[in-house]
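Open question from group meeting: does this chain pack into something compact, or does most of it stay loose? Before anyone orders reagents, we agreed to write out a predicted structure and look at it together. Recording both the input and the output here so the notebook holds the full record.
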Amino acid sequence: MTVFRNVVFVAALAGLVAGVVLAALQAYATVPLILQAETYEAAGDSAGHDHGDHSAAGHAHDHGEEAWAPADGFERFAYNVGANIVSGIGFALILIVASELAGGIAGWRQGLFWGFAGFAVFTLAPGLGLPPELPAMPAADLFDRQVWWVATVVATAIGLALIAFRRSPVFALVGVALIVAPHIVGAPQPASHDSPVPADLHHSFVVATTVTNLLFWLVLGAVAGAVRCRVGGEEAELSGRLA
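Structure tokens returned:
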């Protein structure tokens, strides 16, 4: 029970700090770009209402678009902070359990390396095939994208683990093959890439999202490593008890 309590405590604190940092970075770097893209989405919806068919199906679609959403300003920011904290705790649990199975994170410096590994697995690798999207941009079927994203994350994680911990040319080749395989298969793509969103706006969003997520993972790993070293004495030796 002590082991479980320590893991949860470290994950909760690391996820809280990293989630708040990510929300602050997003408020400055990505949210303004999303709001700008929403103007193109609203303009497209307006044009569709002006020239579209006003059948019963069309009215049903309109009603669906009026679903509840947090108001712009503080309410939207607060929901974003909450979502980032919950996501941060979840990612922290994955990171800490994985690191403990490999011997544990011995300090905040080593935590930075684990954080970068998390960034590579959950952001960088999937983003090569499915870059972050703005409102009004076309996208492939959601289920197909989810399947490819999960497969890419799992393959990349296993591949990096084989390269980092097996230290064998054969395992390294298998690891590289696993990392590359999802990109050879290719991510699901929409039928058309036509979008009202300017290309430079999307490029700025991809860069901003990638950088903010990199900082999120570095903070997550560093805080997890620092807190783990302070949980105290034998109780900090989680790796031996998990083995």
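Observations to bring back to the group:
Confidence is low (pLDDT under 50) at residues 53-64, 233-243.
Residues 148 and 185 are 9 Å apart (CA to CA).
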